Amino acid sequence: MVPVAAELSHIPEHQPVREITREQRNDLVKLLKGFPFTLCGLRGFSEAIITQGGVSVRDVDPSTMESRKVGGLYFAGEVLDLDALTGGFNLQIAWSTGFLAGSSVP
């Protein structure tokens, strides 16, 4: 993906980062925030991948996602022992807990 993003941002593939111009950097940021792609198919349910295990939800305040054991430590996404059958539910868990944790940090 790096060679494609570099080419679409008009950055030579082997150009040192310290030599990237502001305009090239802005082009890259714009590209990455709205990267165009086309879905070409779906894989079977047997290939769906998630992780299991992690920090027990019993050890996390569900209103803030803050650790009940270590104040000021927040958890979100797959670091938690939460999982669902398909990726969409897991993505929603990641987005929701991430938003909640981020919004709760003082």
From TrEMBL:
Protein name: NAD(P)/FAD-dependent oxidoreductase
Alphabetized InterPro entries for the sequence: BaiN-like, BaiN-like_dom_sf, FAD/NAD-bd_sf, RsdA/BaiN/AoA(So)_Rossmann
PANTHER family referenced in this protein's UniProt entry, alphabetically: OS12G0638800 PROTEIN (PTHR42887)
Pfam families: HI0933_like (PF03486)
Domain (RsdA/BaiN/AoA(So)-like Rossmann fold-like) ranges: 31-103
